[in-house]
Specification:
The protein is about 25% helix and about 30% strand. It is an alpha/beta fold.
């Protein structure tokens, strides 16, 4: 079999192509692990496209909150892929899970819960192959806890570990028993390069601009929706420009918006969600965002023009 191609000049090694074909044949949930700029997203798209060519029904869950290809930043996205995907550009989400930040560092519980719920949604859609992309956070105790519990929660059949040396071994060790997930170690994507923080920030700004096309003002009655977390008395003016998730009565994310104003009677949003009648909760995240998609910082961390830490 000839080596596969992705993103311009990238040519995958023959051994990697054989691995992907075996993974496609086995099916089930496939978790991609790797540090930042290791090529996880490029490998995920190669895997998805090869699975489609093999006639499989494919779902993709993108849990990379800062550089997601499915849905806007601050969310985990799931999509059923029914046509070959390009190596650049966003994919249309089937369902979102709002976390509210571009890094999981302070949001381990929602990062795990959201990924597990969307994998369950993919299983309900009878996907033969479910590809789960993850953040590049792999070092330190928080990263170890995040990956450990995420693997527990989604029970992948296969783990594809992209590493430069042995940086993923501490994360893989708890699951390395013969009767655990099938772990395959791969080298990072050919031509993978480190992207500077400014490039990542601009990528997020473009992703926000894409998501917010067609957004308009929506006014919700406070008597009909809850704010979560519940704000302290006198804190309502400080919610302006905060990114928020728009949830239904079961906590399912219907869309994402930016808070324009909150008072005792109404919640005013800027959102592309056209029909807000099912919104039961407005979940307020820590990220502060302009309506042009420019990140202005986080709560307690106003740093105009700078990328938030850990993104």
């Amino acid at each position: 079999m000839n080596a596969g191609k992705a993103e311009g000049a990238i040519t995958w090694p023959e051994a990697t192509i054989h691995t992907l074909d075996r993974v496609i044949q086995a099916g089930g949930v496939v978790l991609l692990l790797g540090g930042s700029d290791s090529g996880k997203s490029t490998l995920a798209r190669e895997l998805v496209n090869r699975a489609l060519a093999a006639g499989r029904r494919v779902g993709m869950v993108d849990a990379d909150l800062g550089q997601s290809d499915i849905g806007p930043p601050t969310t985990i996205g799931f999509g059923v892929v029914d046509a070959p995907v390009a190596m650049t550009g966003p994919l249309r989400p089937t369902r979102l899970y709002f976390v509210g930040d571009t890094t999981p560092a302070r949001h381990l519980l929602p990062a795990v819960v959201g990924t597990a719920l969307l994998v369950r949604a993919a299983r309900a859609q009878r996907c033969d192959l479910i590809v789960v992309d993850t953040t590049g956070m792999i070092s330190g105790r928080l990263a170890a806890a995040l990956k450990f519990h995420k693997i527990q929660a989604i029970q992948p059949r296969t783990i594809l570990a992209l590493q430069r040396r042995a940086e993923l071994e501490p994360l893989l060790a708890p699951f390395a028993a013969p009767d655990g997930p099938r772990i395959t170690r791969l080298t990072v994507a050919p031509g993978a390069r480190a992207r500077p923080a400014e490039e990542r920030r601009q990528n997020r700004r473009r992703a926000w601009a894409h998501y917010l096309v067609g957004a308009r003002e929506q006014v919700l009655e406070r008597a009909e929706v809850a704010l979560w977390p519940a704000p302290r008395p006198g804190a309502l003016p400080g919610l302006r420009q905060r990114v928020c998730g728009l949830l239904d009565a079961w906590g399912v994310t219907l869309g994402v918006g930016i808070l324009r104003a909150v008072d005792t009677a109404t919640v005013t949003l800027f959102t592309p969600l056209a029909d807000t009648r099912a919104v039961a909760t407005v979940q307020v995240g820590p990220l502060i965002l302009s309506e042009e998609g420019e990140e202005l910082g986080r709560v307690g961390e106003i740093r105009h023009g700078a990328a938030p830490k850990g993104a």
